Amino acid sequence: MDLQNKSMVTEFVLLGFPFLHGLHIVFFSLVLLMYILTLMGNGFILIVVMIDHRLHKPMYFFLSNLAFLEIWYTTVVVPKLLQTFVQTSTTICIFCCLVQAFFHFFLGSTEFFILTVMSLDRYLAICKPLHYPAIMTKTFCLQLALGAWLGGFMAIFFQTILVFRLPFCDSNIIDHFYCDIGPILKIACTDTHLIELLGFLAAVTIILTSLFLNVVSYFYIISTILCIPSAMGRKKAFSTCTSHLTVISILYGAVLFMYLRPNVHSSFGLNRVVSMLNTLLTPLLNPFIYTIRNKEVKEAFRSVVTKKKSLLNHNF
């Protein structure tokens, strides 16, 4: 049969979590709450960094980039995920599905670059404190941020072009709660080994290279901190790094498990659970991890609240 005659699929069906057995409303409420908290937490970081001049520093500039990314990273996936909890059959048009896959992996790739840039910032701040102000200028920070976003875009761009050209026929069932690349390739009615290989190579390059740079940065950071004579100085230096190190550990642990395997068709069920944690839990925890022990952010928050109260009292 001619392939063009077979390519009749116009939309995909997302299976979501069919094994929940009557708990869909409970999970809908839980995911919705986590999504709202994610938007509020990351939005809080953006607003506080923008308003308070004390946070106009490279570290918080990169943190605001990360917060902005996390808002869109969850928004790309969660609305459709919520729909799978309330509908027995959740459909998505092919173009919408492929666009969702592109933005999911574009933002995910960009996150690795931003975290690597943040490690570089901490390395320079702790290991090269005298040179730090001269190196981390506003122009250089902007260039690093733009480079991270451009790097994430280019990392997925060429693979996306090939995926957009895939023909789909017969099956239109995606065994996932969003348009992950593995389930998409599984139902394509053509050979996808080249795309799988490109995706695997991209994942190895981005994840392992950024992980290596992060490990090297923190090797020098920890070595420098251990050489600080005073216990108070070591504690203060460690406190500026622990939040970032925690986020890196959570993110890389989940992603290494999911994507650094040549066969993307395997273990969809387990991948779905890990993807749920990576899509919801990490963006939710990031604002709390970065702010709960950060005195500057807490002081900035108190300042914003105080100003707001003063304005309200003045108006009334």
Structure in words:
This protein has one domain: Rhopdopsin 7-helix transmembrane proteins (Up-down Bundle). A 3-stranded mixed beta sheet has the order 2-1-3. The radius of gyration is 22 Å and the shape is globular. The termini are far apart. It is mainly alpha-helical and 316 residues long. Helix 4 (94-127) packs antiparallel against helix 6, helix 4 runs parallel beside helix 8 (193-226) and helix 6 (138-164) runs antiparallel to helix 8. The chain contains 12 helices and 3 strands.
Distance between the termini: 76 Å
Number of strands: 3
What's the oligomerization state? single chain
- Number of separate helices: 12
> What would the CATH topology be?
Rhopdopsin 7-helix transmembrane proteins
Q: What's the name of the CATH homologous superfamily?
A: Rhodopsin 7-helix transmembrane proteins
Low-pLDDT stretches are: 1-5, 262-266
Which sheet architecture does the biggest sheet show?
A: 3 strands, mixed
Spatial sequence of strands, sheet with the most strands: 2-1-3
**What value does the Rg take, in angstroms?**
22 Å
Write down the secondary-structure element order: HEHHEHHHEHHHHHH
Protein name: Olfactory receptor
Family: Belongs to the G-protein coupled receptor 1 family.
InterPro entries: GPCR_Rhodpsn, GPCR_Rhodpsn_7TM, Olfact_rcpt, Olfact_rcpt_6C-like
Main location: membrane
Considering the chains and any ligands shown, give keywords for the structure.
mainly alpha; 75% helix; disordered N terminus; globular; 3-stranded mixed β-sheet; 316 residues; Rhopdopsin 7-helix transmembrane proteins
